[in-house]
Amino acid sequence: MILLLALTACSPYRDIEDRWTATRAVCQPPEPFVRDYIDPDSYDPLTDACRERLAQDFGVAEVFDSMKVREYVFEALFNLLGRDQGTVHDLEVGEYVRQPFIDAMTEQAEALETDDLGQLLYNFSAFHIALIIDDTSINEGFRYVDEEQAMLVNKTFEVEQDAALPNGSGWATFVVHEASHAVVPGHVLCPDWGTPNCDADWTGAYGFQVATAWRLHEHCDVDADTYNCSLLRDELEDSRERILAD
Ligand SMILES: [Zn+2]
């Protein structure tokens, strides 16, 4: 008992807040969660009150170079808020989830006294990300800056295409990826591509992202939400390839 208390006292998550419950009450994500972007009339736009809550939880900057990117960021946060991911209790070591992720989620489940994986990953991400801004000076994609707890986004080129659709479910997995950079070992060089965005093993950001993409995909309705489910499948495969260990 004394050991357990000592462990809890040391946990960085002892002060973690549950923002998920209050924000869901405002945003009222549909259940089951479906956002068929191919047919924009099939879902309701986010309300201003919901946008405000999401902006508060993650420090989304007021002004982006591309305001369209800002809208897509809200869509990603709404996906993270609304999509079901099952429970920590149901996680077992397998092809797409490994012990470091289960251990991290179990630690937070204790701190937040909930077993709901979607709730935990939303709160985990909001805990580690205090600011989301666009920054076209970085390579195309996303980056985490430790000192500012900032998630940088450079997606202007992709998003400003006329035919671009929100990548809400796929970007949601990147929110978890970037947040995990606060606590995981950094990336290493990919031997096949020569780029520095692989992980040596399952303790890294891609381990978090693979597990998230897998849980989201398992709960995605392939018939009603085909586009999002295929995005999640892509993120699942792409992030898995970036983990060098088996
Ligand atoms: Zn990364």
Please bin the fraction of helical residues: 40-55%
Question: What's the multimeric state?
Answer: single chain
Distance between the termini: 36 Å
Task: Name the CATH class.
Answer: Alpha Beta
User: Taking Cα atoms only, what radius of gyration do you get, to the nearest Å?
Assistant: 17 Å
Per the CATH scheme, the topology name is Collagenase (Catalytic Domain)
The coarse overall form would be globular
Largest sheet: 3 strands, mixed
Largest sheet, spatial ordering of strands:
1-3-2
**Strand share of the residues?**
5-15%
Name of the CATH architecture: 3-Layer(aba) Sandwich
What is the total tally of β strands? 3
Please describe the topology of this protein:
Layout: H1 2-10, H2 20-27, H3 48-58, H4 67-82, H5 99-112, H6 117-128, E1 131-134, E2 141-145, E3 150-154, H7 156-159, H8 168-180, H9 205-218, H10 226-241
Parallel strand pairs: 1-3
Antiparallel strand pairs: 2-3
Helix pairs in contact: 2-3, 4-6, 4-8, 5-6, 6-8, 8-9, 8-10, 9-10
Structure described in brief:
Helix content is 48%, strand content 6%. With 246 residues, it is mainly alpha-helical.
Walk me through what this model shows.
Helix 6 packs across helix 8. Strand 2 and strand 3 form a beta hairpin. This protein has a three-stranded mixed sheet, with helices on one face. 48% of the residues lie in helices and 6% in strands. The protein starts with a helix and ends in a 5-residue tail after the last helix. It is built from ten helices and three strands, in the order H-H-H-H-H-H-E-E-E-H-H-H-H. Zinc ion binds next to loops.
